[in-house]
Amino acid sequence: MTDFSKMSRRDFLGFTGKAGLATLVASAVGTSFGMVQVAEAAGNARLTPFRFAILTDAHLYDIPDHKFDGILQKAVEDINAMNPPPDFVVYLGDIAQSGKRAELEKGRRILAKLKVPLKVIPGEHDWYLDMGKAWRDMYGSPTWSFDHKGVHFIGMNSILVRDFWTLKSLTPDERMGFMEELECHQCGLWGVRDEQLDWLKKDIKKLKPDTPVVVFTHSPLWDYYPRWNFQTEDAPQIREILSGFERVMAFHGHVHQVVYNRIGNLSSVGTLSTSWPWPYPGVELPFPGIRMNRVDPGDILDGLGTQYIDLEKEFSGVLHYQTWSDLLPEGVKKGVKL
Amino acid sequence: MKLNTKSRFIAFTTAAVAVTSLGLFVTGPAEARKPFTQDELAAQYKELLDTVKQGDELWHSAKLGKNGLACANCHPDAAAANPHTFPKFQPNLGQVIPLRDMINWCIQVPLEGQALDANSREMKALEAYAFYMHRGFKLKPGENTRQHPPVEVRSGPGYP
Ligand SMILES: [Fe+2]
Ligand SMILES: [Fe+2]
C-alpha cells in the first residue's frame, strides 16, 4: 500500500516541472493548503489546484464474499484515508462482470462508503444484459459534464456497439456473454456515436480555448489495440471537436494496465483495475517507459490499484498510480506527468 | 478420435527416409512407404483444430473454477500464458514444470477450482489452444523473464 507520509513532495514536484520555486518553498513547509495559496498568489492561474481520484473495473460477481468485493472495499478505504483527500472520485466503468442488477447493487453499496462525491460512467460489462437499464436506474445519464475549480470535466459512454444480436436472435444473456469476452469476435468496435458527438459539440461551445478540459471514457481515445476494444471508433471525431483547446487530459478504464499516449493537444492515460490486470497486447507502446511490471499470479493484489491526479494552477498535473505490490518501474512510481 | 496406428507409423518412417537421403542418418528403415494423402492430412489437421476449439471454449468458460473467472479473464487470446517457455522453473512451485502443471496451478489459485487430471481430454484441449495461439514461436524452455503476446489475431477466434 502506498504510504503517503513517506512520499516526498519533491518527487512529485520534480515531475510537474513547471511548479516553480514559490511552490517548492510552500511544499517544503509541508502544508498543501499553503501550497495552493502561494500558487494562486503567483497569478495567471487557470484553476485552483486540487486532487481527484479514479477507481475502476471492479468486475463484481453475483457470488457472496467474492474476492473482488474485498479488493474494491480496500480501494475505497485507501481513498478515504488519503491526506489530502481528493475532491471527488470518478469511476470509469465495469462495476459489474455480467451486467446483473445484483452486481451493480453490490458495487453501489461498496462505493457508497466513499467520503467524497462520486461520478460514474459505464463499461461494457455494466451495460449489455439490459442495455444499461439497471445502470441508468442507479447513476442516471452516462453522458455528463460539470465544472470544478476552473476545470471542465466530461464523462461519456464509449462502449456502444452496432446491433449484433437482433439478426442472430440472441437472448440478453447470450449478448452479455459475448460482450464479456475481451476478444469477442461478434461484437465489433465500440464508440460514443453521433448523439454523444452532438452533445459534446454543444457542451463545449461556450468554453474559452484556455479552459482546462478533462475527459473520461471507458475505452482509450486512440487506436491502441482494436482487437480488445482498446480503442474508441469515433475517437478521431472526439479529438477533432476538442482540438480547439490548448490542452485536454483524457483518462480511461478498460485496459486494466498502466499505459500513456499523447496525440495533438490530448494526453490519454490508462488506469489500474481492482479485479485483474490485462497483459500488454502485441503492439509497441507509444511511451514504452510508462508501463507496469510483470504480475505475480500468486498475489491477488498484484497488478491492481487506484490512482489520483493532482492538478496544478496552469493546468499541468501528475497522475499517481497507487498499488499494493511492487508493480511500477522507478520512473512511473514518481507519477506520470500530464 | 480414431487411433490410426498404421498411418502414424508411416509418418515416422517417411520422415526418417527423408533424413537418410540427406546422409545424416546411417541407419534407417529399409523400406520407404507412401506419405499421407492430402485427405489424410486434412483429416488429421481437422482433429487438431477440433481440439483447439474445445480448448478455446474451456479457456473462456467459468466451469474450470469456482469463482466465476475463466482463463480468458486474465489471458485474452492466451496472452501471457507463454506456452513456448515451458518446461521451466516456477518459483511458486519450487520446481521445473511442464505447461500443464502451470495450467493446473492457475485453475487452483486464480480460479479456485479443482486441478484437472494431467491426461484428461480437457487438459489436452487447453494445451492445444495455448500452443496453437503461439504457433510459429521459437521454443524457449526455461525463459522466465518476459510476458509474450500471442500470434497476431485480426478477426475470428485466432484459428481456422
Ligand atoms: Fe474492465
Ligand atoms: Fe471494459
List keywords for this structure.
heterodimer, A: 338 residues, alpha/beta, Purple Acid Phosphatase, chain A, domain 2, 6-stranded mixed beta sheet, globular, disordered N terminus, B: 160 residues, mainly alpha, Cytochrome Bc1 Complex, Chain D, domain 2, two-stranded antiparallel ribbon, 2 strands, 41% helix, binds fe (ii) ion
Kindly describe this structure.
The complex is a heterodimer of chains A (338) and B (160). Chain A is of the alpha/beta class and 338 residues long. In chain A, helix 2 runs antiparallel to helix 3 and helix 4 (67-80) packs parallel to helix 5 (101-111). In chain A, helix 10 links the parallel strand 6 and strand 7 (248-252). Chain A contains 11 helices and 12 strands. Chain A has one domain (50-337): Purple Acid Phosphatase, chain A, domain 2 (4-Layer Sandwich). In chain A, the strands form 2 sheets. In chain A, strands 3-2-1-10-11-12 form a 6-stranded mixed sheet. Chain A has a 6-stranded mixed sheet with strand order 4-5-6-7-9-8, with no helix packed on it. Chain B has 160 residues and is mostly helical. Chain B has a domain at 39-133: Cytochrome Bc1 Complex, Chain D, domain 2 (Orthogonal Bundle), CATH 1.10.760. Chain B has helices spanning 5-21, 38-59, 71-74, 99-108, 121-132; strands at 88-90, 95-97. In chain B, strands 1-2 form a two-stranded antiparallel ribbon. In chain B, a hairpin with a 4-residue loop joins strand 1 and strand 2. The longest helix of chain B is centred in the N-terminal third of the chain and has 22 residues, at 38-59. Chain B is globular and about 55 Å long. The two termini of chain B are 19 Å apart. The chains are: A alpha/beta (338), B mainly alpha (160). The complex binds fe (ii) ion (2 copies). Residues 93-94, 123-125, 218, 254 of chain A line the site of one fe (ii) ion. One fe (ii) ion binds next to loops of chain A.
